[in-house]
Amino acid sequence: MSYPSxxxxxxxxxxxxxxxxxxxxxxxxxxxxxxxxxxxxxxxxLWERIKDRPDGKLILVTAITPTPAGEGxxxxxxxxxxxxAQRGERVCVALREPSLGxxxxxxxxxxxxxxxxxxxxxxxxxxxxxxxxxxTSAHNLLAAMLDNSIQQGNPLRxxxxxxxxxxxxxxxxxxxxxVVVGLGGKADGVPREDGFDITVASEVMAILCLSDGIEDLxxxxxxxxxAYSFDGTPVRARDxxxxxxxxxxxxxxxxxxxxxxxxxxxxxxxxGPFANIAHxxxxxxxxxxxxxxxxxxxxxxxxxxxxxxxxxxxxxxxxAGLTPDAVVIVATVRALKMHGGLPKDKLADIDMDALRRGIxxxxxxxxxxxxxxxxxxxxxxxxxxxxxxxxxLIRNMCAPLGVPxxxxxxxxxxxxxxxxxxxxxxxxxxxxxxxxxxxAPDMPPKEKIAAIATKIYGAAGVTYTDKAxxxxxxxxxxxxGNLLVCMAKTQTxxxxxxEKKGRPEGFTLTVREVRxxxxxxxxxxxTGAIMTMPGLPKRPAACSIDVDSTGKVSGLF
Length: 557
Hints:
It contains 19 helices and 25 strands. Helix 4 (73-86) crosses helix 17 (419-429) and helix 12 packs parallel to helix 14. Strands 1, 2, 3, 4, 5, 6, 14, 15, 16, 17, 18 and 19 form a twelve-stranded mixed beta sheet that branches. A four-stranded mixed beta sheet has the order 20-22-23-21. A three-stranded antiparallel beta sheet has the order 7-12-13, covered by helices on one side. It is an alpha/beta fold. 34% of the residues lie in helices and 19% in strands. A hairpin with a 2-residue loop joins strand 5 and strand 6 (116-119). The two termini are 19 Å apart. The mean pLDDT is 95.
């Protein structure tokens, strides 16, 4: 059976006015700030009305280690919300906003797929309500004010060799990774080396997603360290008096965006830090709004359990005082066979040996989530080529872990294809929950890093380069060793080697540097060759995207 493409499905959707979607959650029209007929931001007035309500159930969706075969985590999040709505539950979903870099690069959009999408899909993937533009502008304002201070006599005695705050752009552009600024003459600034990160790697993005209001936002922005002086003193955004103007640029961006799924389930889509170079979760504000307004809030964390989910639990939940009620781990038969060594062009073949070799990857992610004390459900995102015997093998190999394995056909059937999953999640929410964090905040940084590396990744140990050791010493000297840890690691392996598939063991994780995000409240140990400004592939997705004279978009998916 053939299906239309994702964009064809989205374009044929009959959306309901956003005021009608908001009413399902009890949001009044004057508590919305409309961006046309189908998009809105929710005002802070709403929070004042609902903040004392009890929270609904918080469901986290994560996945196995990503492969080119695809897993469908966002699609599953949307489909699960639609299935719960079909079961008569008051539900909403909270997702991240897509970045333009992947949309025009290799990954494509991030609004779900098939009959489990959030809409208007084209708007969500491109510009949306301008949040990323605001974050880019606020970040680059701070960078400009730093260079201006140096130009205007350098009163803060900034050491140009110790500037740690790059500029950002929400586009994959490898040519901007390393640049020189200030050329042209005395009036054009002071020449120095600089560079660009992608906007989703910005500390301002992380701060926006972790802040619970304007005052918290300003406090965090003021703590950003942009450089060090000649005597080693940190130079912060507050030393440049930048936090007020930055917060002004972000005053609307911090408000959650409300849209809908194809089945008219309310959806908050807000914030978008990557999980391999940042903390990979949608905003705290969107999550908190959803928990107060719905009986079930479905949210996702980027990539697999070793990245987004660990950060969601250890960073976001700890910072925001959240307790998840259940976690869904998404897998596909195709991806597991790829972890077992089967090439991409053979994934439709039944190969029980390859599947058997790949299932330990799923097992590790299940163990990771159970180690936090949260009830878990494994959802197999099914494809037409899957054999019942392959599903049964996954069930049998997961049985010792005591976690239910359910089939999910939400791409092709929408919410109807996720009813078994919805029932399993409802059941999981009634099981004992002894949620606990992986590490204590007062542990030394190396002990926190070791806990993540050995317990979550499966490493035998951790080694540090000379630069990483110097970075940790500076962090200790500044009295910031008690910050949380946000690991930067490849998403394509549990290890720091992207070529190691399945469940690697006995490896040593190498930390090559440790960055300090004082405003966001975490350290970033960088492992492997992590790029904070990605490049485009040989044939970018942009080559296939077009728009006709009527404004109809094609090729976005």
